[in-house]
Write a structure and sequence with these properties.
Elements: E1 34-36, E2 41-43, H1 78-82, H2 84-111, H3 114-120, H4 125-136, E3 148-149, E4 152-153, H5 166-185, H6 191-218, E5 222-223, H7 227-235, H8 237-251, H9 254-279, E6 280-281, E7 283-284, E8 290-291, H10 293-316
Antiparallel strand pairs: 1-2, 3-4, 5-6, 7-8
Helix pairs in contact: 5-6, 5-7, 5-8, 6-7, 6-10, 8-9, 8-10, 9-10
Length: 325
């Protein structure tokens, strides 16, 4: 049916909006807001580990291996090594250290050369047996000279008159052990006694070497002796000390001890007199006259006669008491 014209709806003056065409890239939507329910704090972003970015608790950056040290990826100190001035200084330091090492080795070689030590320990079983027999019975020995081979002394294994350090060193160690054993049989052994006996014997040996060397220099005597020769000759007394202590312990009285000590003292004095007489030579003038013969004789007598006194001094304390029952 027809609607009256009065009742028709009036047309709107506004135009209908047209729909916008769909775009290929829709606009980005705002990220959803997250809330922390416990504290009711709004967070713009979810919590993520902080890798190299500052956060609210730590103002710096987290550790990153790629940014450690130099920005170019160098380890600390590499830039200093690449510096030419620093490299030249380090090279100079290495050169100076090498020169110092060579200088120290040369100075050590002048005083304690390995070749010299090898010479004094160039012994064998036959030499040791013959030398011990010579120390106890030197009265029948006739030739006391030391033979040379192309200005070098013959090694001890081929020359019985040559000084060695094998017998003195072994006798020194044996003396410490024998002294400890004797003190143990008397009930007086303590660990400190071994150190006391060793240090006392070593100090007296050093004093002998220094006194002998200074005497040769002060008296202006020419000699072929070296300081290791002096140590060897002064160290032979430990052989007689060991035999005297062992004999006294086995016999159980001091009479046997003093008898062995006196015999070896006489033998050692005779041995040193004949040996040092060849080594310590008096000087000769242009006229053919010798000078310094008395001085060398006095020095030889002093060194030889001091050995029995030291033997008694280093062993009398050990044998001063009777053995404990």
């Amino acid at each position: 049916m027809d609607v009256p014209s009065d009742f028709r709806a009036e047309k709107s003056s506004q135009k209908r909006r047209t729909k916008a065409p769909k775009s290929a890239n829709p606009p980005a939507q705002a990220p959803p807001t997250n809330y922390i329910n416990d504290f009711n704090i709004q967070s713009q972003q979810p919590f993520m580990p902080n890798l190299g970015q500052p956060d609210m608790f730590y103002g710096g950056s987290a550790f990153n291996s790629s940014s450690y040290g130099d920005p170019a990826g160098q380890f600390p100190g590499q830039q200093l090594l690449n510096d030419p001035v620093a490299s030249m200084a380090m090279q100079y330091g290495h050169t100076l250290a090498g020169q110092g090492k060579v200088l120290v080795q040369k100075n050590i070689e002048n005083y304690v050369a390995s070749s010299r030590l090898k010479y004094y320990f160039a012994v064998d079983t036959a030499y040791v047996g013959k030398k011990l027999a010579l120390l106890f019975f030197p009265f029948t020995h006739s030739d006391w000279s030391i033979h040379y081979n192309q200005d070098e002394p013959v090694p001890p294994r081929y020359e019985i008159n040559a000084p060695d350090l094998y017998i003195p060193v072994m006798a020194f160690v044996t003396y410490i052990l024998v002294a400890g054993m004797v003190l143990g049989t008397q009930g007086r052994f303590t660990p400190e006694q071994l150190g006391t006996q060793a240090s006392s014997a070593l100090v007296w040996l050093i004093i002998e070497m220094v006194a002998f060397t200074l005497s040769l220099y002060i008296l202006n005597l020419s000699t072929a002796l070296k300081y290791l020769d002096i140590v060897a000759y002064c160290g032979y007394k430990f052989v007689g000390m060991n035999v005297s202590l062992l004999a006294g312990v086995m016999a159980g009285n001091t009479t046997v001890y003093y008898g062995c000590l006196i015999w070896f003292s006489l033998a050692l004095v005779f041995f040193l007199l004949r040996t040092l007489k060849v080594q310590v030579m008096p000087q000769q003038d242009h006229d053919g006259f010798t000078k310094g013969a008395k001085r060398s004789l006095y020095l030889i007598l002093l060194v030889s006669l001091s050995q029995p006194l030291l033997m008694w001094w280093l062993t009398s304390y050990v044998m001063s008491f009777k053995s404990a029952v």
